Amino acid sequence: MPVVVVEVMPKPELLDPAGKATLGALRRLGHTTFSGVRIGKRFELSVDGPVDDTVLAEVRAVAEDLLANTVIEDVVAVYLGGAEAELDEFTGVTAGETH
Amino acid sequence: MPRIGVVTFPGSLDDRDALRAVRIAGAEPIPLWHAEHDLRSVDAVVLPGGFSYGDYLRCGAIAAQSPIMRDVIDAANAGMPVLGICNGFQILVEAHLLPGGLIRNERGAFVCRDQRLRVENADTAWTNDFTVGEEIVVPLKNGEGGYIASEDTLAELEGEGRVVFRYVGVNPNGSMHDIAGITNARGNVVGLMPHPEHAVEPGFGPDTPDAMRSGIDGLRLFRSALATVLSRV
Known about the structure:
heterodimer; A: alpha+beta; Mth169, Chain: A; three-stranded antiparallel β-sheet; 3 helices; B: about 230 residues; alpha/beta; Rossmann fold; 11 strands
């Protein structure tokens, strides 16, 4: 069953207190490599049947309408999940379409 | 007697306190249910505090899509007084009845305290019993109460006098411009993070210089709505 992935992040200009707290924990563990942490959300929408442009358009619409609140968050990516996408990710090639 | 409804969502916590506040203010409290399309002929609506639908997805996001909210949105757009308290405020911004958003508190902690507020707008359906500049104390308890909005929205809110309450002394959650509550352009919809329904009855409110737990400043929001409804009859 195909899965469409939607990634949502808090807007860059807004403070992300959860990310800030996580950065504090990393520092306490002695990790000085990282200068920041931001925490977002990944949605996996299962689709019965093939994912075509109509489905992707519908996903983008619900991503903006419900999955993200665009006042405080950005939809940073919408793409087809699955084995090929993961392989692409592994080889550093951007999987599917980005938004 | 004017009827003021209080919506119960799964996960609402302060619906009973809000109903009690309505009764103490002198109106008839009407329980409303999230899954129905029935406002039961109320004259005003309160969206209470709590964690509707477990605050899944985002605070207030699922509640904003619930059946009764279709009716609340229509009624609000027709001028009915609507008050959102805490989670209710979050529902109002998710339903786009009020601008901006509410994010996790700046310091990451849940805050519970008696909070001093300054009344900035005494012309709304829920604040006509106050005077501008007056300071009141009501309880505040939230984890995600940081009010944020774009610079344009903030300028619009400030320019049109639509900031209704501002934090005084301590800004408990990092809200921009110390904003505790706002209203829509028409002044019938008000949302605020602090809890006026917990300051309506001597013995159960915040401490005052006069006596412990004697603060009842919150009652005047409900009296304001009563006056608003009665003035329209």
